[in-house]
Amino acid sequence: MKPIHLTLICHARTEAQRVGRFAQDGEPLLELPSLVPEPAVRYLSAPELRARQTAEGLRATVDEGLRDCDLGTWKGQLLKHLDEAALQAWLSDPHATPHGGESLAALCGRVAHWMDSALGEGEWIAVTHPFVIRAAMLHALGAPVQSFHRIDVQPLANVRFSHYGQWRVRLA
């Protein structure tokens, strides 16, 4: 068995991140980054426009397993305009879905399944979303989903993982 090396890159900055709201479907980037492909690396991208724009030039394959958390009726909403009780329920209970979308627990399970089954040996770089990167970190560390909101992922941040029998976070 040969190892898997996976780097998850957060999409570049959007207006939603700038103003403190949840992204909408089709949310574009504020500025296009210029990522340069490396030889012998396979590239993946989440299906949303902001991830595909960030991955532009990498010849990335769109992978549905990297899609962002479905926030249902909260898509496009400013955090300060959400019902405070519903937001508190969502922040404190990883199984809560006051928005009618995907729970954080379901997202973490989906990302864990993707990490454990979608990649073959070799070097992978995937452009995705802050929530997906948080879920991947929790899976690799074996941390409880209650730790989800304790991780900040900035635009264009990257986190490296390796797998040889188990997932590990790789610090470089």
TrEMBL record:
Transmembrane residue ranges: none
Keyword terms, alphabetized: Hydrolase
UniProt xrefs under Gene3D superfamilies: Phosphoglycerate mutase-like (3.40.50.1240)
Source superkingdom: Bacteria
This enzyme's EC code(s): 3.1.3.-
One Gene Ontology molecular-function label: hydrolase activity
SMART domains: PGAM (SM00855)
Name of the protein this chain belongs to: Histidine phosphatase family protein
